[in-house]
Amino acid sequence: MKTLKLLLLSLLLTACSTLSWQKPQVSIADIEPGKSTLFEQTFTLTLRLQNPNNYALSAKGLVFDVAVGGEKLARGVSPQAIQVAALSESLVKVELHTSTRHWLKQVGRLLEHPDSTLDYEINGQLQDINGLGTLPFSSKGEWSRPH
């Protein structure tokens, strides 16, 4: 039985090594404010997933952290199934919960310097990509206040 498992594993690895595989790109497409309480602010975060591969990608969910101005703002999880066609992109909406105190701190920075930008970073993992395991992703960008 062990020999059979090793043989199947080596066949799988050989097959995977012939694929030209590129990481999908994940970026923030939109942030919509949601419900707010004294302790917590909810946002709907829209992520853009771009698949540069010649075959479709599927994931069983994702886990991610969002940092703003170099400080961790929130952590999000989603069990939502994700499908991205070959050489295509898909938008995925997920909920993000943050401490109202942390969010107000960032808003205060922006109000003190209205012409400045807020740097953001999102780091996470797509879960169970095509049944093969997790795939980490990272994206950085800037947000400036509309005038």
TrEMBL record:
Gene Ontology terms describing biological process: response to desiccation
KW Transcription (keyword) present: no
Pfam families xref list: LEA_2 (PF03168)
Alphabetical UniProt keywords: Signal
UniProt xrefs under PROSITE patterns: PROKAR_LIPOPROTEIN
Domain annotation Water stress and hypersensitive response: ranges: 26-144
Gene3D superfamilies associated with the record: 2.60.40.1820
InterPro entries: LEA_2 (IPR004864), WHy-dom (IPR013990)
Residues in the signal sequence: 1-22
Protein name: LEA14-like dessication related protein
Organism name: Pseudogulbenkiania subflava DSM 22618
